[in-house]
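Hi P.,

Sorry for the delay on this. The queue was packed all week, but I finally got your sequence through. Input first:
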Amino acid sequence: MTQPTYMPQSTEDTTPGLIEARAFIPERNIPADIARSWLLVNAMKPELFDQSAVSRADAIILDIEDAVDPSQKDAARDNVVNWLTAGGSAWVRINDATSRFWADDLAGLRGTPGLLGVMLAKTESADQVTESFHRMDGKTPVIPLVESAVGIEEANNIAKAQGAFRLAFGS
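Then the structure:
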Protein backbone atom coordinates (compact mmCIF):
# COMPACT_ATOMS: atom_id res chain seq x y z
CA MET A 1 0.00 0.00 0.00
CA THR A 2 1.58 3.24 -1.11
CA GLN A 3 0.80 6.40 0.80
CA PRO A 4 -0.54 9.24 -1.31
CA THR A 5 1.67 12.25 -1.75
CA TYR A 6 0.53 15.25 0.27
CA MET A 7 0.51 18.59 -1.46
CA PRO A 8 0.34 21.56 0.94
CA GLN A 9 -2.95 23.45 0.78
CA SER A 10 -1.42 26.78 -0.04
CA THR A 11 1.58 27.64 -2.14
CA GLU A 12 1.46 31.13 -0.65
CA ASP A 13 2.74 30.03 2.77
CA THR A 14 5.84 32.10 3.44
CA THR A 15 6.87 30.43 6.68
CA PRO A 16 10.66 30.83 6.79
CA GLY A 17 12.30 27.70 5.50
CA LEU A 18 9.06 25.94 4.54
CA ILE A 19 9.18 26.88 0.87
CA GLU A 20 12.83 25.86 0.71
CA ALA A 21 12.02 22.61 2.51
CA ARG A 22 9.35 21.73 -0.05
CA ALA A 23 11.94 21.96 -2.80
CA PHE A 24 14.14 19.33 -1.15
CA ILE A 25 11.57 16.86 0.19
CA PRO A 26 10.94 13.97 -2.18
CA GLU A 27 7.42 12.67 -2.60
CA ARG A 28 6.44 10.40 0.28
CA ASN A 29 6.31 7.08 -1.53
CA ILE A 30 7.48 4.64 1.13
CA PRO A 31 4.76 2.08 1.81
CA ALA A 32 3.55 2.14 5.41
CA ASP A 33 4.36 -1.53 5.84
CA ILE A 34 8.09 -0.73 5.57
CA ALA A 35 8.09 2.84 6.89
CA ARG A 36 11.04 3.39 9.22
CA SER A 37 10.18 6.71 10.80
CA TRP A 38 6.79 7.74 12.15
CA LEU A 39 6.39 11.36 13.24
CA LEU A 40 3.79 11.92 15.99
CA VAL A 41 2.16 15.36 15.84
CA ASN A 42 -0.06 16.78 18.58
CA ALA A 43 -3.54 17.22 17.09
CA MET A 44 -4.06 20.38 19.17
CA LYS A 45 -1.34 22.07 17.13
CA PRO A 46 -2.81 22.14 13.60
CA GLU A 47 -0.29 24.82 12.65
CA LEU A 48 2.28 21.98 12.61
CA PHE A 49 0.35 19.67 10.28
CA ASP A 50 1.57 21.15 6.98
CA GLN A 51 5.16 21.33 8.23
CA SER A 52 5.06 17.70 9.35
CA ALA A 53 3.69 16.66 5.97
CA VAL A 54 6.82 17.98 4.25
CA SER A 55 9.18 16.53 6.83
CA ARG A 56 11.56 13.70 6.05
CA ALA A 57 9.55 11.21 8.13
CA ASP A 58 8.27 8.19 6.25
CA ALA A 59 4.84 8.49 7.89
CA ILE A 60 2.90 11.09 9.85
CA ILE A 61 0.64 10.25 12.81
CA LEU A 62 -1.68 12.94 14.09
CA ASP A 63 -2.10 12.21 17.80
CA ILE A 64 -5.50 12.64 19.45
CA GLU A 65 -4.60 10.30 22.32
CA ASP A 66 -1.67 10.92 24.68
CA ALA A 67 -0.76 14.40 23.47
CA VAL A 68 -4.25 15.80 24.06
CA ASP A 69 -5.87 16.83 27.34
CA PRO A 70 -9.20 15.01 27.88
CA SER A 71 -11.09 18.33 27.78
CA GLN A 72 -9.75 18.98 24.27
CA LYS A 73 -10.38 15.60 22.59
CA ASP A 74 -13.30 16.84 20.46
CA ALA A 75 -11.37 19.89 19.26
CA ALA A 76 -8.32 17.77 18.44
CA ARG A 77 -10.44 15.32 16.46
CA ASP A 78 -12.04 18.22 14.58
CA ASN A 79 -8.59 19.64 13.75
CA VAL A 80 -7.57 16.30 12.27
CA VAL A 81 -10.76 15.81 10.26
CA ASN A 82 -10.61 19.38 8.90
CA TRP A 83 -6.98 19.03 7.81
CA LEU A 84 -7.46 15.62 6.22
CA THR A 85 -10.63 16.74 4.44
CA ALA A 86 -8.79 19.80 3.07
CA GLY A 87 -6.24 17.58 1.32
CA GLY A 88 -3.88 16.30 4.00
CA SER A 89 -3.02 12.66 4.43
CA ALA A 90 -1.87 10.93 7.59
CA TRP A 91 -2.39 8.17 10.12
CA VAL A 92 -4.20 9.04 13.36
CA ARG A 93 -3.44 7.68 16.83
CA ILE A 94 -6.79 7.18 18.52
CA ASN A 95 -7.72 6.60 22.14
CA ASP A 96 -7.72 3.06 23.51
CA ALA A 97 -10.77 0.82 23.25
CA THR A 98 -11.48 1.03 26.98
CA SER A 99 -11.58 4.83 27.04
CA ARG A 100 -14.71 6.95 26.80
CA PHE A 101 -13.25 8.64 23.67
CA TRP A 102 -12.68 5.54 21.51
CA ALA A 103 -16.16 5.27 19.95
CA ASP A 104 -16.25 9.01 19.18
CA ASP A 105 -12.78 8.80 17.60
CA LEU A 106 -13.88 6.01 15.27
CA ALA A 107 -17.21 7.64 14.40
CA GLY A 108 -15.56 11.01 13.79
CA LEU A 109 -12.84 9.62 11.54
CA ARG A 110 -14.87 7.07 9.60
CA GLY A 111 -14.91 7.91 5.89
CA THR A 112 -12.59 10.91 6.26
CA PRO A 113 -10.66 11.52 3.03
CA GLY A 114 -6.89 11.38 3.50
CA LEU A 115 -7.05 9.03 6.49
CA LEU A 116 -4.42 6.37 5.85
CA GLY A 117 -5.31 4.32 8.93
CA VAL A 118 -5.52 4.44 12.70
CA MET A 119 -3.08 3.54 15.44
CA LEU A 120 -5.01 2.01 18.34
CA ALA A 121 -3.40 2.99 21.64
CA LYS A 122 -2.97 0.54 24.52
CA THR A 123 -4.12 -2.51 22.55
CA GLU A 124 -4.50 -5.60 24.73
CA SER A 125 -6.64 -7.97 22.65
CA ALA A 126 -7.39 -9.04 19.11
CA ASP A 127 -11.05 -8.15 19.67
CA GLN A 128 -10.13 -4.49 20.20
CA VAL A 129 -8.42 -4.42 16.79
CA THR A 130 -11.21 -6.25 14.99
CA GLU A 131 -13.93 -4.09 16.53
CA SER A 132 -12.03 -0.91 15.59
CA PHE A 133 -11.56 -2.19 12.04
CA HIS A 134 -15.26 -2.97 11.61
CA ARG A 135 -16.41 0.32 13.12
CA MET A 136 -14.17 2.22 10.68
CA ASP A 137 -15.66 0.54 7.57
CA GLY A 138 -13.79 -2.74 7.28
CA LYS A 139 -11.18 -1.16 4.99
CA THR A 140 -9.19 1.23 7.17
CA PRO A 141 -6.00 -0.43 8.46
CA VAL A 142 -5.36 -0.55 12.20
CA ILE A 143 -1.91 -0.45 13.78
CA PRO A 144 -2.27 -1.96 17.26
CA LEU A 145 -0.01 -0.10 19.68
CA VAL A 146 1.02 -2.64 22.34
CA GLU A 147 1.93 -0.83 25.57
CA SER A 148 1.49 -3.32 28.43
CA ALA A 149 2.47 -6.77 29.66
CA VAL A 150 -1.03 -8.01 28.78
CA GLY A 151 -0.55 -6.68 25.24
CA ILE A 152 2.81 -8.46 24.96
CA GLU A 153 1.19 -11.72 26.14
CA GLU A 154 -1.50 -11.28 23.48
CA ALA A 155 0.78 -9.91 20.72
CA ASN A 156 0.55 -13.01 18.53
CA ASN A 157 -3.26 -12.92 18.55
CA ILE A 158 -3.30 -9.14 18.12
CA ALA A 159 -1.04 -9.43 15.05
CA LYS A 160 -3.44 -11.98 13.50
CA ALA A 161 -6.58 -9.93 14.18
CA GLN A 162 -8.71 -8.88 11.25
CA GLY A 163 -7.70 -5.35 10.27
CA ALA A 164 -4.26 -5.45 11.95
CA PHE A 165 -1.78 -3.85 9.60
CA ARG A 166 1.46 -4.04 11.59
CA LEU A 167 2.31 -3.91 15.27
CA ALA A 168 3.86 -1.00 17.11
CA PHE A 169 5.23 -1.06 20.65
CA GLY A 170 5.40 1.65 23.29
CA SER A 171 5.20 2.18 26.99
